[in-house]
Specification:
Length: 379
Amino acid sequence: MNMLVACAEKFTINGAFRLENHNNSPNCMINGILKRYKEYLPITGDTPIFTIGEGDTPLVESANISDSIGCASLHFKLEGCNPTGSFKDRGMVVAVAKALERGVKSIACASTGNTSASAAAYGAYCGLKTTLIVPKGNVARGKLAQAVAYGAHIAMVDGSFDKALEIARELCLKHPIELVNSVNPNRIEGQKTAAFEIVEDLGDAPDHLFIPVGNAGNIVAYWKGFVESRRREDCNKLPILNGYQAEGAAPIVTGKPVDFPETVASAIRIGNPASWAKAVSARDESGGIIGSVTDDEILAAYRLLASKEGVFCEPASAASVAGLLKQAKSGIDFSGKKIVCVLTGNGLKDPDIANEIEPTSIGEYAAELESVEEALSLA
Ligand code: F0G
């Protein structure tokens, strides 16, 4: 009998799944979002507490890019270090725990890839049937491979993410299936914990937060997290939010939905964000902006992060840094400012884009010391 089944039987109450204390064994080194931030999340005595290692991601100080920005400090929040390689895990663990609490047996989402990988992983861990509705041909290869490996049911539809979300919403209204997209408020609750971690690590909120925007849930979640931290007096200020969409998928910037969104950053190829209005409110309350960056700017930032900072993120994530570089180039003075860029997903998710990077030096040599020395110009 596997540990989860044993655990599920032990903690089944009224037919509902309970995983309480599942990760309390002395050998377990990780706390996870549910346990660590229990008092700030919608958790009751009946909510199962479990983790597959989400949260507690590194806030890494920039080694080389910060000089060109002229700021006091620049940090990268590495959300690609979450168990499925993206920030989605923070929200997914809360959404799935709350669904289990109500006895739900089946979850579904629409996705550009990361939400689906995350839902599939937590669904697998908790023994739930997981259905993913994804835009055919528009999900990065690594993300699809994850969903397949986790054993999810995958429906590839001939349409955009926006259409897939419409279908997912209808599906979950019609059937007893929990929708785990970020329109589910429990997803936002979990994702706000990234802001808590930044405040803990910096000892205050940063002056500026740069973040990619797609369906617009994450920018709303960060704002909620910072506002709550401020209310608790964990920080003395609130950051200015700088959200960035890709130019070919920038409905919030242009003010109208985009029927055929197009960008190399497939994660944020979204034409009609579900959390549009809330993102605009967060932006305005923070005194910030939601702008756009071109695919060339995204790819330049993507390469720069890997080659100058040792951070390999996916293209959508690099939109945050592309936005910062764009602002610095336009002459905005960041002197004295503390800046955090959120890097939302791991670069390995999208191997096809990674393979387009021109290698600095690559060649085939005989398997002898001399030939490798020759390659290194040491001969
Ligand atoms: N970065 C990455 C890597 C993402 O996967 C997403 C969204 C975003 C940024 C934007 O976040 O939607 O909260 O504004 N991905 C969703 C998905 C849409 O289906 O995986 P957002």
